[in-house]
Amino acid sequence: MRYSIHEVAPTLLSQLNQKEYAVHRNDHRKIRKRLAAGIDALLAGDVELPHELYPYQYDALTHTRDWLLDTKGTPRGYIAHATGLGKTVLMAALMHACPDLRFLAIVPTKVLIEQTAPSITRFTRGLVGHVSSLNQIHDDDGNIVALPGHEYSNIAVTTAASLRIYAHALANEFAPHVVFWDECHGAYHPTAQASLAPFTQQIIIGLSATPDHLVAVAKPGWHRVQLENGRILYAPPDRLATTHFQTKIDERPVRWGIEEGWLAPFAWGRIAFDCALDSVPTRETQDGVDYDEKKLQTLMAQHWSVMTDTIVRLYEHGEYDLPNRQTFAVCPSVQAAEELAQAVHASGIPAACIHGGTPTGKRRSILKQFRNRQIKLITSVMVLREGWDMPNAEVCLMLRPTKSRVFYIQCIGRALRLDPDNAHKVALVLDPHFQHNALTPLSAPQLFALPGQEIAEGDMLIGPRRNRGRGGSNAIASPYLPHGAKPRIIVVDALSENEIEYWAGPDGTFEADGEVRGTVEVCAEQIQLPATTVRNRIIRFRCQSRDGRDRGGKMRPFYSLSTVNSICADLLKDIPKAGISGVFEIHGELWGTLPVLAITLSLSTQAVSDRVKGRNCRKKRGKDRRGKPRTFYALSDARDACSDLLSIQSQANHDGMFEADGEPWVMATAYAASIHRSADTVMERCVSAQCRSKKGKDVTGNIRTFYAVADVQQACADLLTVPQARDDGTFEESG
Predict the structure, then answer these.
(1) DSSP strand pairing (589-592 vs 629-634)
(2) pLDDT tens per residue across span 229-286
(3) Which end of the chain is less congested by CB atoms within 10 angstroms, N or C?
(4) Taking the CB of residue 637, how many other CB atoms lie within 10 A of it?
């Protein structure tokens, strides 16, 4: 039955305008209880659903209920389920179980609004609203499922971009009780988090297959995260799901989904293509640190004809049975995607390209032909990465090198869905693997191979523990292995520490393999030896290095600090060590570090440093009280260099004042703070009025200019009569 907007809208409006909601929008505790009650009804089977949920979905609902009922439960949580495990179904089931609550669902794109709205209405059996530039949204049967605006339903769907514009309006006018953010790994940017700020009392739940932005890049302060196969990747703190969505409610990764039979088994093969990526810089992207897109496109364009010929040959030779498989390719650029589609199509295989500029009608036609197996290959860049639901997609050509796990898994996840029309589906991912790069991009074996696992090209990478719906046999043979011939290569390697790109911190070092490492210059600075001496020792003893990026981002060799200390031990053994006072004595001369000299002379460290370094005072290598190599300076030289400062005896108290010549003196900044005016304003009046000045030391020992308090008060008399606002921005005068 086709519905008309004129038939459904008045009824919905009359129902919603009554404003009879069971839960007050600002009562977070009651919202949690009501949502938990809805889950209890789902678990008890009291809610009629269009189809039964899977056991793991009931487990996820149980964990969600426990989180909601926890008196110390966080306002936000997230569910980490691999692509194809039905995150949208969970969201729709909760909406259906709580018809008296209002829900806002946030998705990345308008394409996903068109996909999510029908999925929701299959459960709720009613229209939803959407906040986007789209018009009415129809399902595959032509029924209206979503209307523009949020006035027609207690469920609204919007994009992340629209939320940034309408966040306050949605929070105040639509006033949802629960906010779902689908693909929440895209919500970590400050602007995205700012758009959630108006939702102060709502329950916020994130959904993602890749909640953490894990990359093969390590920087100081980044978190080490262990993958499901035991490998280690890294993420900055602001790119972790727990930072923004607080509590992990339930997790079902790719390996779990495949081994339990809820996702398709997964085979891998290597594309015979390689190029040197070491020269391509990395930068922050929406998916974490990854290759610079423009530089990568430039490099890949130089080699793309080789890649295209390689893929065409795979089709012509029938390798991996590609001519009979539904395949999609992830390419580095639109031009590359178009060239590949044209080349494969010219070889006799129906192929098409979809990109951001493809008209909606043409895109839908291509996807429909792909679903009907009339098109065998779709090439793209980004548009098929998230939310593309095409169960008959079997093969992913991962042709765009990446260092981001989010990007890689989101792309290949499109091939892992079970196909209801093919109970024996085995997904295949083909990537170049780039084995000859010093710092390789991510590849399927690195992310999914177990330690010590041997992988034949075309053979299974992850298979099920038990074959749900596959005849009960536990052994599944890969359909992609060559017939009558041995596999070409056995791949044993997986992601190793040598393939992690390390960046130095502010001190010029990073930690890898349990060792602190630095460049030759940094190592020399640490042990207070000339860089030439350290370099010669490193060459002499053939010390092993690890490549990393220095503080400026330049790739350099780094060496173990402990090793450098060891090979230079004979040069360091006679270095004097400071006593408890921080100084040591040689031939009747006292030597101290800059901080120790500053304390001894009652001056600031900066003041001592400026004069000592500016006058070439004598210095020696030494060890401080803790045994760390430092630079020591002769106390007598430091005293001579700071003689002009030592002649100044007056030092300010914590109020910025001291007394001399029988009257008080004050710094302009201290006086400005006492009358709540800017320091520049007070300084300007002191200079204009030619207030008497005197040099003195501030509380930390730095030399400052002080002014006679009497002169300053006179120069700033007019400022004292101007009303001053309070903290709330107002002042009171004449009542």
Answers:
(1) antiparallel
(2) 888 899 999 999 999 999 999 999 999 999 999 999 999 998 888 788 878 888 888 8
(3) C
(4) 19
> Please, are residues 192 and 184 in contact by the beta-carbon 8 Å criterion?
no
Q: Does residue 662 come out as left (phi exceeding 0), alpha (psi in the -120 to 50 range) or beta?
A: left
Q: pTM, whole model, 2 decimals?
A: 0.75
pLDDT band at 9 (very low <50, low <70, confident <90, very high): very low
Pair of tokens at residue 638: 């430091």
Segment holding 398, helix H or strand E: strand 395-398
State the average pLDDT over residues 286-291. 87
DSSP helix/strand/coil, 602: coil
- Provide the 10 A C-beta neighbour count for residue 221: 8
Angle at 296 between CA 295 and CA 300, to 5 degrees: 120
Q: What whole-number distance in Å separates Cα of residue 199 and Cα of residue 25?
A: 10
**Do 418 and 263 form a contact (C-beta atoms < 8 A)?**
yes
Amino acid identity, residue 303? H
Question: What pLDDT sits at residue 8?
Answer: 41
Note the pLDDT of residue 419: 93
Q: How many CB atoms lie within 10 A of CB 106?
A: 31
The residues near 114 (Cβ < 8 Å, ≥ 6 apart) are 134, 137
Lateral strand order in the sheet of 703-708 = 657-660, 663-667, 703-708, 693-697
Query: Is 78 strand, coil or helix?
Result: strand
pLDDT tens for 151-208 read: 889 999 999 999 999 999 999 999 999 999 999 999 999 999 999 999 999 999 999 9
Task: Write down the residue that tokens 């610079």 correspond to.
Answer: 292
Locate 217 and state its tokens.
């890049």
CA 471 to chain CA mean position, Å? 42
DSSP H helical ranges for 125-181: 160-169
